[in-house]
Write the structure tokens for this entry.
Amino acid sequence: MTDLAAALGVQICNVTPPRDVFYSRTGCRLHGLDWGGSGPEVLLLHGGRLTAHTWDFVCLGLRGEARLVALDLRGHGDSGWSDDYRIATMADDVVAAADHLGFDRVRLVGMSLGGLVAARVAEVYPDRVERLVLVDVATGADFESTKRMRDFILGLGPVGELDSVVDGALRVSPLADRAVLTYRMSKLFRLGTDGAWVPRADPRTPDFPALLAAIELFAEQLAGLPVLLVRGGRSKVLPQSAAERLVERLPEGELVVVPDAGHNVQEDNPADLVTALRAFLVR
């Protein structure tokens, strides 16, 4: 992890691994990675089908200036599966994590699906959120551009070798970095008792209409909050025009474009994302 982060340009001051955090809500066991650190308390929320580990490179670069905890949303990573994956439910999970950690007011970073959850937290619990970062998600996002990769990931089952999954992902997304993809897949799968690698995420198909409807609420949900919108410079999901339109509707909105990054900004170019987050979160 640290070697790959350094190769991606991340300046690392502390290589200590994060601490696992477990808590429960509504009968679902939930998990997070506590990176420690001092400074403002920041909760990081991953995108759909990803895990808390998607923030590993970013946390290695930012941990000296903030108290960072990356969460696994329910149904993802090392969190339990559930019959309830509503945005509102996952938002309540985030607040329960803050309570468990003893955090009063937090700064939220949400990528894609995590951005929808973060916006809901800000709307329902405005006294708990100090400022918020959306990573490559905004009203007007084009999620059809990710259909091939979504279908690939949703179709994943047990495999004998992770390299075969990486090969398939590269065929769908040829611009991705193989080393980064390999690291991601090592966190998206676990080794089963029969020796096969199985996906950690709940295989049920997300409620895409509900997710798209939630994105349309961003301007109203975030109107009273300092918001940074980060767009990947080569993202096909978030057009520049859509990003600019949302920021124009937010009284305290800012836009940063991270070069050499697609939708997964935090994995494609974590060094420049760390710079943007430091400027906004550690004010």
Notes: The longest strand covers residues 28-36.
